[in-house]
Amino acid sequence: MIRAIAAAAGGLAKVKFDASHFFENAIDRQIVALAVEQWSGEDVGVVARFCSQTEDFPQLTAVVEASETDEPTTLEVEIYGPDALAWLRQHRPDIVALIEDMLGRGSCDYEGPYPAPHWDDDRDWPGAYERRQGNAPRSPPFR
Fold it and tell me: Among 17, 52, 73, 90, which is 20 to 30 Å from 44 by CA?
C-alpha cells in the first residue's frame, strides 16, 4: 500500500487512500514528476483524481468533487514518500534510478525508521484508508 491523503475545501473534506493503483498505471515521467514535487501539493492532485475515477473510493470521490466546486479550486494531496519509494524499488526499480539521476544520488534514501506518515497520529484525519476492493480498474490505464 502507498499511503496518501487528499484534502479540499480548506481541509473540511479530507480522506486517506491507497495510491498504489496510480503507480501501477502511471508512465515513468508522471512518477518522476511526483518525486520532483516531493510527493505533495496541488500538482499531485492527478493521483487522487485518477484513483477516484478508476477505483470505487466514494470518500475520495467526494473530496475530489468538493475541490472542483471550491473557489478557488484546490485539491491538496500528499503521498507518503517512503511507501512510494519502497513500492517503486520492488515493482519499478528503473524509475528509482531515473529519480536519482534527476535529483541526485541518495535522494531516494530515507533515514529510518519511518513507521507511519505524520497524519496517522492526527485525530483530525479519518482512521482508515480507502483501499482497492477488486483488481479490475473502472477505466483504461495511462499506458
Answer: 90
Residue 17 has pLDDT above 90, yes or no: yes
Kindly report the number of other CB atoms within 10 A of residue 18's CB atom.
Answer: 20
23 membership: H or E segment, kind and range: helix 20-25
CA angle 119, 107, 81 (to 5 degrees): 20
The whole-model pTM stands at: 0.78
The kind and range of the H/E element at 5 are strand 3-8
| Residues 6+ positions from 65 with CB-CB distance below 8 Å | none
CB 98 within 8 A of CB 16: no
Q: Give 141's contacts (C-beta < 8 A, 6+ positions apart).
A: 24, 25, 54
Q: What DSSP string describes 82-137?
A: HHHHHHHHHH-HHHHHHHHHHH-TTTT---S---S-GGGG-TTS-SS-B--SSSS-
Q: What is the pLDDT of residues 98-138, one digit of tens each?
A: 887 777 655 555 555 455 666 666 666 666 676 765 544 44
* Centroid of chain to Cα 71: 23
Decide: 85 and 110 in contact? Cβ < 8 Å. Answer: yes
